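Troubleshooting: if your tokenizer reports a length mismatch, compare your output against this known-good record of 129 residues.
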Amino acid sequence: MRDTENNTEEPGTHINPEEFEAVQRDAADSKDTYTHKFKKPFIYDGQEYTELRFDWDGLSGADALAIEREVEKITGVVVIAEEFSSEYLIRMAAKCCTQEIGPDAFELMRQKDYKRIKSRAKSFLLASE
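Known-good structure output:
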């Protein structure tokens, strides 16, 4: 909401139009696969990665149910909307990554890489509806 007297926005109410457009573009342009290229090589489990490839379309309904059960078991939280659950999105990305990585790999990434991969997973789910 806008405070018209002081010409200011209330905290948490402003939507950045550029960020919103970027999310819309990602959802519209979402492909069944995504290759994430790291600006700095990423090391996980003793192996160095310069990129990770995700095959979103390779996931089945059984995979989705397994991811939901895993999130519920680990966090105790029931997944209501997969596209808004970071735990679900990251486990989904780990499951469809063509290289063998676990969900814990995302905790070790730079935040920028983590957020971009999570955003692409979310875009795929939103585009699939």
